[in-house]
Amino acid sequence: MYTEDTICAIATAPGGALGIIRVSGSQTFESLNHIFRPLGRKPLSERNNHEAVFGHIVANGENVIDEVLVTIFRSPNSFTGEDSAEISCHGSAYILQQVMQLLLQSGCRMARPGEYTQRAFLNGKMDLSQAEAVADVIASDSAASHRIAMSQMRGGISKELNRLREQLLHITSLLELELDFGDHEELEFADRTELNQLCRTISAHISRLVNSFHTGNALKNGVPVAIIGPTNAGKSTLLNALLHEERAIVSDIHGTTRDTIEDTISLGGILFRFIDTAGIRETNDKIEALGIERSYQMIDRADIVLLVTAPDCTLTEQELAKIQEHCLGKTLIHITNKSDIASGSNSTDTISISAKNNTGIDQIETLLIQSMEGKANESEVLITNARHLQALSEALEAMNRVQEAMQMGLSGDLVSMDLREVLFHLAEVTGGQITSDEVLGNIFKHFCIGK
Predict the structure, then answer these.
(1) For residues 56 and 93, what is the distance between their CA atoms, to the nearest angstrom?
(2) Predicted structure pTM score
């Protein structure tokens, strides 16, 4: 992994007044000494940790490129755990590129995507789940996704799994201690009733983490909300009203929307992904029929369904029954549109609105936020990473085998094998069982360069 190399990268987006270049590796200060002239004669290698040093970046020993501030981070008290430095200079693309070229000439190499965070993981500054959360913090686009990512980066998942691992290690050690004294059948170090109860508790905990992926993934990528109903009921007008922009084409012609239209907006700190669907009606048009079939598919994928009807646009009993069948286990909000031409009545999950006049939209937004309340509990650990889900699912399968073996009264050596498999999969989440360069490279390749 070339962890002995000294790496450098621009860590800020182009166009700003200031730019930051990060350098990390064993030759950080030696490389900077070739191009940096500090105010005063004391070299960087003799400066204190976390000290900010003003000076000039120079080329060929005399040509001043820029006035900069270099901040020192000495090993192991740095993000990567290595000797590191950050060069704060002016944000000119020319200046940044000149500084980078000088660093490359002085012995550094360009950092790969995510290499700083990867080094932090390899040097024990964070575990793998925390390292992956760094990318989620950068990509977060709502208060909910940011809160989840920050919790994970601070070790929320790690702490949960460490508690489970301690309990599992306790069970494993007791069972394996019995094996060491197998000649003494009268000795039983592990109370089977107590172990059964502990196994059930651990299984329930892992199961909760696995089941939390649906909510966690929705909060991270946007809660899918399908807008469905008969043609000409105002679904596209409602989408535009919710997004506060003309996103979908609006027309009085039935069947205008023939494919799904998606867009997102943050409400109450939660990202919602709205999906406008083709109007449901009987049709002989093959293209429109495909769109209607896709509407039902979108209902299956959604967490929340907004069923939009109007006094002049209703559904048949068969269509309504089919929609309700697809909505089982989902939040279904019935909306009666066009209140500007006919009055409607409000109830807990039925709202009378006029999407055209933007009346009643705030009620829909309130219901959407309320539908997610409790699912984004700040103190609850949520799984948002598909790799974590896979490892935890495999751990749960192994844990179920442990419970079955305990109930059947199988010997401790057989139970211990499955317990060790549970421990293995839990360690996969935090990186304890990942040693392949290829696997780690695949995890970090989607990171930003400079992070």
Answers:
(1) 17
(2) 0.75
